[in-house]
Amino acid sequence: MFYVARRMARRRIAALIAVVSAVLGGAALITTTGVLGESGLRSHPPVTRLAGADLLIGADQTFGSGIEALALPERAGLPDRLVGDLAALPGVSAAVGDVSFPAALLGSDGQPVAAGPDPATAGHGWASASLAGPVTGEQPRQASDVALGESLARAAGLTVGEKAELVVAGSSFSGTVSALVGSGDTGIYFSEPAAAEFAGDTNQVDLIGLTVAPGQRESVVSAIEARWPELTVEADRGRGDVLDPQIGGARALLLALAGSMAGITLLLVGFIVTGALGVSIDGQRRELALLRAVGATPLQIRRLAAGQATVAAAVALVPGIALGHLLAEQARRFLVHLEMLPEGLPLSLSPVPSLATAVLLLLTVQIAARSAAWRVSRRPATEAVAESRTEAPTHGRAAGLRNGAGLLLIVAGLLLSVIPLVSRSVIAVSSSALAGIIAAVGLALAGPTQFQVLSGLLIRHLPGRISPPAWLAVSNVHGYARRFAGAVTTLAIAVVFVITYTFTQTSLMRAQAVDTESGSLAQYSVSAGALGGVPRGTAQRLNNTQGVEAVAEVRNTTLVREYDLLGEPEVESTSALVAGPELASVVDLDVTAGSLEALRGQSVAAGSATGLEVGDQTRLYLGDGTPTTAQVVAVYDRDLGFGTLVAAPELVAGHVSALPASVLVRTDGSAGAGAALTEKISTEPGLVLGPADPAPSGPSGIPADVWINLAAIGVLLGYLLLGITNKLVAATTARRAEFATLRLNGSTVAQIRSMARREAGLITATAAVTGLLLAAIPMLLLGLGLLGRPYPAGPLWLVPLTVAVVVAIGFASIELATRQALRLPPAEALAQRE
What we know:
The chain is an alpha+beta fold. It contains 27 helices and 25 strands. Strand 2 and strand 3 (about 70) form a beta hairpin. Residues about 695-700 have low confidence and may be disordered.
């Protein structure tokens, strides 16, 4: 049987090349997704602090469990008594509690010295210096003593005994350098009493470092996990996770990216691979039918088809998987460039994604090949031979079920696109993109039947003086509806995919911009990232500046909201603003119920997309996992631009940074007010004056998450177009015998090429119109729901460009393949067929 498969494969090189290309691209995409997903589960950042600790212990920084666990970005504290309890465990040599707080060293110019990765956590107690490296000098004993990391001191030009000016926990600090710590350390260390005061809680530490006796690490870990199962205990590379709770968010981003790509990637890969195999098997129907006639069993026929396809897939798997690893690294660098991933977080590489890719694709190939050969293998031998020159019918029970299922999917997709009209939210935007793809899948199922009906109507209404090539083209389209419907479907999916996924992103971006532009009453924002937060008293001093009418301190945090969905408990993590009643003077949230004046104590304002109403009690988990209940005091409509929740400062006090991330400033709009504000900012170290509504982060002012989506769309579109081209070329090349028969019956080469061009015109025109119709309704409803107009936001030139590309690919693939097929003399082409 292998000999027969090899002989058959030699005569179907074009079709098998299409299979190889489809599998190669699919392997690359699936491997990329798998590597990113595995990195989200297993990757660890380097240990940048406390490298002398054998074990680092912190609170659990996740909400929930398993793959659906949510990362908590705010540091959850530990009781300081736990340091003594851990030190008393057998095998523990020393236990050190570590606290972190904002601290920045000022240079000779009065501005912060940029040396550390995060000024918000640069300050520490002296105890943790023992785990940071060698020490030169003496420990800080007085409240005015300070020890500097050696790298930080070198950047500032300071040494032991010299005076240092700092901003610590939002206040000015003058001290004497008592010691230098480590060889590459950038921390700032204070006496333990002073550090506890700066941290704001004398009974709590952020994490604990342990040194253990040789050979005792495993027993110590077991003892800690048995007695304190709620703690996170890490050794070796895992210590980096405990040092920075933000790493959990970075890994969650990789998981979310892999998860969001997985569905559409698997759909496209399955569709393209199945289509390529369908063309390959369809071209061998006569050979398979003849094998049935000479005694081959149905199982042998299916094994033959599957074995041939598996060999072709195996050839493509190795280079495809290798390409996938290269793409994954490029994706990581792209995320680092967009500042959505820390530079130090590497990819986690193991055989798991490669093996999963191989198994998944080989299984897809087996199922697709056996399904494609099912009909010819199950037909009686005489009927199989008779049908080998024609197509399977597009009527009958099976075709009717397929057509009905496809039409139901199209209707379901159109119904799903209504969601933006009733919910102005990110989830509603996602449903619009999904609606187009569901409708496209429905088209793939219903396409053959519907295409034959449409082509039948076209035949009956052809003019009497139509040219022979045009008549042949329409007759071929009608007679081979399944073959041509496959081409129409793949081209239509390309149109739907590009338009829906691109315009959903641009429309969301525009809706968010409209909200922020309309709601921003302030003209300026004052921040102090180099100090770890805006210093205390800054807002009051800015409010006293000439021309300033209102100021409001703003922080950012993450809240996890618990709610019921169809009677089942659900949770969602959302970014939230932290601000008091003064927010109303600098931001117009378009409040529809309640008032921001009541934003005090245990209260929140909620966006309309949450479904909450004034007076509701909502269950929340703060950024460090602390549970609480808040009362809704206001509901607002501009939640796309400002987030779905605004929390009162008292609600999150002690669970987020005590320093505001920024101060929003509203002036009288005069030039004098702007000049006075600029002069005021220049006199205070570390403050940065910027617009209240800054451009989104990312290249060209486009948000980073939009860039990620556009990059993913580009990669997937490239694979989709490659699959379309391969399928059209293989299907056209397989028609050499048909072209040879026409030539022997008197048709010229020019007439056959004219016929092929008209077929290409029918295919591309139908695909473009169908794709535009399937994409138009979701995009029209999206525009109405988000922007109040019957069209989406974005580059409208993309629509004609997409249609032009699809038409060009369709025409070029069919034209070039037709020219190649016509190079063979008719007799030779028929001999190869037979």
